[in-house]
Design a protein that fits this description.
The protein has ten helices and eleven strands. It has about 325 residues and is an alpha/beta fold. The chain starts with a helix and ends in a 6-residue tail after the last helix.
């Protein structure tokens, strides 16, 4: 067989085998999305992350042309969901609704969380969520100072819980313990809803979570302090930790990411859908988020990246000070 004919035959075989795959990959980006998109939520249903994701996803779906459906993979402070998405096919049909704990804390304090932030490309920021230190209404303490004074008299007697171990909320309480000179016993729960249920049931003494406005307004718990720089407009009577003499300013960013390697056309469509949702329904989204003690924070890819870098610096120093730094 002549060399020219042999070469043409080899090319024909390659095209026959791999051509459809190449065309399919191209068509995937062009036709995206042609089926529902899964959004993997790091926490259980009923908490702040779940409510936040549903509020924004509902409106973004209108512009994407397909529903964005929540799927829950709680545990590990968000690391189980993050590791799952990091290993998913980068085709745009598996997204990660992440939070600061999994992005900026877990890679520092867990030896092998199963991913790095280099495994993701950020789509956008969703919302910011302040964190509250809560006690049961009608219990022993009405203020943080009362609780700290009691805890000093009874080292190790009182318990606290947060949504998962070694997450953002966990570090807030541990930092408070160190600054206040108290010792508490940690009892882990997988999410904010479970943590606050444990508080109301009398199984723990305080919690540090977001999403407690309904319980607070319903007279079921006291918010002793918040970890924001300033008081919040929907909690004007609640002091900040800084005001009370404990300068701890830590907030939680909820954001949307996708596995690295996803076609840029897909990333652009997802970003555009969310940008349009915030542009058209911004006031509605803000009003709904306020009901769960959040405020909208639409950030682009670079802004999310800068936020994580900034927060990582804060948590690095806190984790090092507390002796829980696993990955310097």
């Amino acid at each position: 067989m002549k060399k020219g004919k042999k070469f043409n035959m080899v090319v024909s075989i390659i095209l026959a085998v791999f051509g459809p795959l190449v065309m399919t990959e191209g068509a995937t980006a062009v036709d995206y999305p042609n089926r529902p998109v899964r959004m993997i939520v790091s926490f259980p249903p009923g908490g702040a992350a779940d409510s936040c994701s549903k509020i924004v996803a509902k409106r973004a779906s209108e512009f994407l042309g397909q529903p964005i459906v929540s799927e829950y993979k709680p545990g590990g402070g968000g690391t189980i969901a993050a590791a799952y998405v990091a290993k998913s096919k980068p085709d745009g049909y598996t997204l990660w609704l992440g939070s600061t704990s999994a992005a900026s804390v877990a890679p520092l304090v867990k030896t092998n969380p199963g991913y790095t932030m280099e495994d993701f490309v950020h789509i956008s920021g969703y919302a910011m969520g302040p964190q509250m230190i809560n006690a049961k209404k009608g219990g022993r303490w009405n203020t943080l100072h009362e609780f700290i004074a009691d805890a000093k008299q009874n080292p190790g007697k009182y318990t606290y819980t947060t949504p998962a171990a070694l997450g953002l909320n966990h570090l807030i309480i541990e930092a408070l313990c160190k600054k206040a000179g108290i010792k508490l016993t940690f009892v882990p729960f997988p999410g904010a809803a479970e943590a606050n249920a444990a508080l109301l049931g009398g199984h723990v003494d305080i919690t540090c979570t977001g999403g407690t406005m309904g319980l607070y307004e319903g007279g079921r718990l006291n918010v002793l302090a918040i970890s924001e720089e300033k008081r919040l407009k929907f909690y004007p009577e609640i002091p900040t930790l800084t005001e009370l003499g404990y300068p701890i300013v830590i907030s939680c960013l909820y954001f949307l990411s996708i596995p690295r390697g996803t076609p840029q056309e897909v990333i652009d469509k997802l970003y555009d859908a969310h940008k349009k949702a915030f542009a058209r329904y911004g006031e509605e989204i803000a009003a709904l988020l306020t009901k769960i003690e959040m405020f909208p924070s639409f950030l682009n890819h670079e802004e999310v990246r800068k936020w994580h870098h900034q927060e990582r610096g804060i948590f690095y120093e806190t984790a090092k000070e507390l002796g829980v730094l696993a990955n310097p």
